[in-house]
Amino acid sequence: MPSILFITRGCAKNEVDTDRMRALLLGAGYDETDDPDKADLALINTCSFLVSATQESLDTTLEIAQQEEDEGRTLPIVMCGCVPSRYGAPLADELPEVSAFVNADDEDGIVSVVDDVLGLERDVAPGVPQGVLRTVDGASAYVKISEGCDRFCAFCAIPYIRGRYHSRDTREICDEVRSLMEGGVREVVLIGQDTGIWGSDLDEPRTLASLLRQVAEVVHPYGGWVRVLYLQPEGMTEELVSTIRDVPEVLPYIDIPIQHCSATVLERMGRKGSAEEFSALFAHLRKEIPGMVLRTTAMAGFPGETDEEAQELLDFLQDEEFDYCSVFTYSPEEGTRGAAMPDQVPEEVKLERTQRLIDLTEQLGFAAAERHVGERVRVIIDGVEEGPDGAEFIGHAWFQAPDSDGVVHIESGDLAVGDVVTCNLVDSFTYDLVGELVDDEEGTR
Description:
Blueprint: E1 3-8, H1 12-27, E2 31-32, E3 41-46, H2 51-70, E4 77-81, H3 82-87, H4 91-94, E5 100-103, H5 110-118, E6 140-144, E7 146-147, H6 158-162, E8 166-167, H7 170-182, E9 187-191, H8 208-219, E10 225-228, H9 238-246, E11 253-255, H10 263-269, H11 275-288, E12 293-300, H12 307-320, E13 324-329, H13 347-370, E14 376-387, E15 390-396, E16 408-410, E17 420-429, E18 432-438
Parallel strand pairs: 1-2, 1-3, 3-4, 4-5, 6-9, 9-10, 11-12, 12-13, 16-18
Antiparallel strand pairs: 7-8, 14-15, 14-17, 15-16, 17-18
Helix pairs in contact: 7-8, 8-9, 12-13
């Protein structure tokens, strides 16, 4: 059977979508390769959250096409995900290098699309197999609990790309988590555009806290961890707080993307909150969940942001001392309200404000990592790197979200990807830590 090269651009949610398409195609008999020269088709799952992400997806597509043309052959390309969903039919004329386009909500039909592109005829049309469709072979796996978004923030195109918010069914989520655990995964990371409101749209409304308790029951026999990302401030109910605090499998790692702290800027963004409200929330969380880790997201240069409002955000981040903070420069996205607003901040001003935020948050993040030196923790092994002195193992502890935060380096041991080991943390550099293996597992998370 033909071999397929899978390429993913964008966020963890796209990784999950690619994995589902991979499972469908491998289940239909296709092979996978990571070598473009050996591929019979390239499947590119694209991101269009920002102009820069769209450009990266387009650049990747054109680079693959040009590389194969330079080598004297044509490689069929199927473009999936956010770029086709956002820009639609005109792409066919603008990107003749692409053989087929698949919108995000049509990806379950990927086998038929690839069959058509490659001229493969089947006696029976492929359907979507029953059961869990995942091919994860690492120690951590993302699990989408919802799709779409109803917030329509002024800076964000996601609702126009992914549609309105809808929750996945509890049983479907738990079945997927169980399958991943049986396959060797030891941490599931629950994701969605707005995880805190999960279940509110179901026929029998549920809460995220109730889902976390059920997922925790699934992972418990495997000694697994449950992490949840992308909680909006309004989603931090007392039920959720107590669940994160009291259920051992649920990590006390809270990710709340505030974007800004100025009430005026937030109102223009179409969001709620203020510095005072956020400070009260974070103080409450730290009181209720001692030792918790707090991550946020901040945006610089939203239209109309004044020097005073930019300074307010900088001061707020300094005062709150977040463990991790992602910083974004505002990008005027086509079709969003923000792009049509007056008082766009000049690019050089946006970049200067962004750099100030990055400088501060790196300083705070490096200090947060250093505070973990001296702790004894459990570490999930994610990979192995060969160096001049032999193998070095790369893993992450409970306070490090995979692919987002720092890692733990372990310089010796007889380990494999997926192992969960106990380490003393003996040193730190930037966001990373150095761990030494120990046998004693008592008193560790």
